[in-house]
Amino acid sequence: MEMIPRRRRTSTHAHLLQRVMIDSPPATALPTASDAAHGEPTPHGAVRIHWVERGLPQSSRWHSERGAPPPTQVVLCDDTTTADGAYRLACAGTALLWRGDFHNARQLLQALGRRNDQPPARKRRGGGALKAAASQPQGPANFHRHRMAQSQRARILGMVLLQIDADYAISLRRAPDVRLACTEAWGPAAPLEGSSVVSLRELMGVTSAHEWRLRGVEVPALGAGPNNRIHPHYGVFSPARGEYIDLVAQAALPVTGQQPYVAFDIGTGSGVLAAVLARRGLPHIVATDLEPRALACAGDNLERLGLQAQVTLCQTDLFPSGQASLIVCNPPWLPARPTAPIERAVYDEGGRMLQGWLSGLAAHLAPGGEAWLVLSDLAERLQLRSRDALLAAIAAAGLTVAGRADTRPQHPKAADRRDRLQLARSTEITSLWRLVRTDAGKALNMVP
Predict the structure, then answer these.
(1) Residue 218: which H helix or E strand, with range?
(2) Please, are residues 287 and 328 in contact by the beta-carbon 8 Å criterion?
(3) CB-side exposure of 198: number of CA atoms within 13 Å?
(4) What ranges make up the beta strands (E) of 54-201?
(5) Minimal CA–CA distance to 406: which of 385, 442, 382, 377?
(6) DSSP string of 80-117?
């Protein structure tokens, strides 16, 4: 049985008594399970989570980035809690509000992850789990099983909770100072609104994003260091995979008679593609995004790189007004429903963004201009979208394929045989599709 280090052992009866105290109705009535599941708004609109501590009802603001409701069953846990016991409670839907050492809470979270990820012993013998993962058919059913497993893992690991003070301080032994990281992610603290409860897993995401923001991601396409880093903000997708950036950096720019020469970067995110185009010498780029976090991140990066004079940021859904000689878009690659804000950079339910971008191109392309679609074929390899469907959508939008550049991405998951999608990832190809209006394509004798 795995134990969290530096803990005092107590009897099982003590933990059962604690559970009974929490599940028993206190002297002051608490909201019903139904009320708690839907959240109890405060006058300021915040949702609250409820528990019992030392026989008294307690509550605090509930914070969930993806808008999940607060758990309806909450028990207190500390350094005496075993990983096996915590895993059983989490699997049963009971949240664990941590009252012990902060580092032990992190170790408990890691232990829960190992228990969730570890296949049964009978499958481990002879590498059965690896063979099973590698041999999974790469169709939609396997993709949905993959997402269900991800969702289950997130739910279980999200059951370890921390209480954060109103100023974002954590009143636990050996707790780090997360005030700056939380301010960057969630905005200024609101001392008058009291403490809040958040899952430890989500808090670790906040602190990890803060570290990425400090260090930045080196992008060779932006030139020699040190002035070649993109600093992703919390909630904004990091350009850690650089193969698609190189495609944009190397493709020949279209030559048009537009004065001034304008380029659009649709769905700019961190601003990396707008920065690459600016470094290539384009004088006027309009970078759009609907998410305020993305626009703030792009603005920060462009200022760090000294490119803010060449790029105008615009909060809009897809296109700004006017026409451009070059319109670049790197839409979410998989047509599936996102379950958290950060997943909107990966999942695009029904291919809405891709279809909307294609449909609006003909009206926004300047004569002789090109649209660059940066897209992985992972959706095709997972049978979530066919190549014929993509080509049909391009043709229906009045566009013609003028050319395509391909590259094979290199990332750890492509070699991870434990990943259900490893076979598809290992053969994945990322492409830059050069699209022109069909009337221009016919004039140049171009065909798909």
Answers:
(1) strand 217-218
(2) no
(3) 22
(4) 56-62, 74-77, 95-98, 160-164, 196-199
(5) 377
(6) T--HHHHHHHHHTT-EEEE-S-HHHHHHHHHHHHHHHH
Mean pLDDT lowest among 169-173, 239-243, 265-269:
239-243
Sorted by sequence, the CB contacts under 8 Å of residue 12 that are 6+ apart come out as: none
Any idea where the domains of the chain sit in the sequence?
A: 12-211, 223-443
Strand, helix or coil for residue 329: strand
pTM over 0.85: no
Query: Which two structure tokens, joined as six digits, stand for 210?
Result: 């803060």
Helix (H), strand (E), coil (C) string for 384-433: CCCHHHHHHHHHHCCEEEEEEEEECCCCHHHHCCCCCCHHHHHCCCEEEE
Tell me phi and psi for residue 48, to 5 degrees. -115, 150
Q: β-pairing, 430-437 with 399-407?
A: antiparallel
Buried b (16+ CB within 10 A) or exposed e, 201-235: bbbebbbebbebbeebbebebbeeeeebebbbbbb
pLDDT in tens, 140-173: 888 888 889 889 999 999 999 999 999 999 999 9
> Domain 223-443 sits in which CATH superfamily?
Vaccinia Virus protein VP39 (3.40.50.150)
The bridge status of strand 324-329 relative to strand 430-437 is unpaired
- Each residue of 276-329: pLDDT tens digit? 999 999 999 999 999 999 999 999 999 999 999 999 999 999 999 999 999 999
Pick the closest to residue 136 from 396, 330, 382, 353 (CA basis): 382
Q: Which amino acid is at 169?
A: A
